[in-house]
Amino acid sequence: MTFAAYAERRSRLKTYFDATAVKAWAQLTSDAPVSRIRETVRAGRDRMRATLLAWLPDRLSGVRVLDAGCGAGQLAVEAARRGAAVTAVDIAGNLVELARQRAPSELKGRIEFRVGDLLDPALGSFDHAVAMDSLIHYAVDDVVRALATLAPRVGRSMVFTFAPRTPALSLMHAAGKLFPKADRAPAIEPVTEARLRAGLTRELAASGWEIGRTERVVSGFYTSQALELVRR
Ligand SMILES: C[S@@+](CC[C@H](N)C(=O)[O-])C[C@H]1O[C@@H](n2cnc3c(N)ncnc32)[C@H](O)[C@@H]1O
C-alpha cells in the first residue's frame, strides 16, 4: 500500500475539482436546471446526503463534525443547521470559496472552512467525520489507510461512501477509458465490499472500531454506497 498513490490522486482531484469541473459542480449542487442524466445524479446525491446525515445523532448541538471533502458545502450546511460545529475541508480552494459564499449568514459562525487535505492533523479532533463521495477516487487500500489515519482524531463515528464494484459500474468504468485522458474526470475506483470490510477490520478493529450500517443508493447514473464505522 503506498501513500504516494494517495498524494498523486489527490493532486489530480485538486486540478479537476478546482478548475476543470468547478462550473459543472457549482451547477450540480444548485437548483439550476441540469440535463436529465445529471438530474438523476443530483437526486441520488440528495438521497445519499440525507442517509449520511440521518446516521448522525439527532441532537447535534455543539457536536464537532468534520465534512471531509466538503465540495460546495451542502452537507456542512445541513449539519450546521442541526447545531453541529462543522469543519468543512476540501483540497479544491474554488469549491471551498463557493461553499463559504453559499453558507447562510446565520450559520457562518458554526462552519469553519479550510482548504487542504482532509487528513491534515491540524484540523483537530471531531466527534464524527463524514466523507461523502470524497474517497471514491482512491484505491481501496488508500481508502482504508486514510480512514485509519483519521480514526485516532475521531471519537464516535466515521461515515463515508465508496463506489461498489457492480457489473454496470465496471462497464461505465471501461467505457470511460475510451475517452481521451485530458477530457476525463479522475477515474472512480470501484471497490469490492468484502475487500473493503476486511481491510477496515484489519486496520481498525484493534483500536475499538467496528463496522456499522451500510446503504447503497442507485439513481440513474449515480451509484454510491455508504458505510458507517463506529467506536465501541
Ligand atoms: C465528488 S466531490 C463530493 C463533494 C461533497 N462531499 C459532496 O458530496 O457534495 C469530492 C470532493 O472531495 C474532494 N477531495 C478529494 N480528495 C480530497 C482530499 N484528500 N482532501 C480534501 N478534499 C478532497 C474533492 O476536491 C471534491 O471536492
Architecture overview:
The chain contains eight helices and eight strands; from the N terminus they run αααβαβαββαβαβαββ. The chain is of the alpha/beta class and 232 residues long. The chain has one domain: Rossmann fold (3-Layer(aba) Sandwich). Strands 1, 2, 3, 4, 5, 6, 7 and 8 form an eight-stranded mixed sheet that branches. Strand 2 (85-90), helix 5 and strand 3 form a beta-alpha-beta unit. Helix 6 (140-150) runs parallel beside helix 8 (193-204). The longest helix has 19 residues, at 36-54. S-adenosylmethionine (SAM) binds at residues 10, 13, 17, 29, 69-72, 74, 89-92, 95, 117-118, 132-134.
Shape: globular
Count of separate DSSP helical elements: 8
Q: Compute the gyration radius: what is it?
A: 17 Å
Bound molecules: S-adenosylmethionine
Helix content: 40-55%
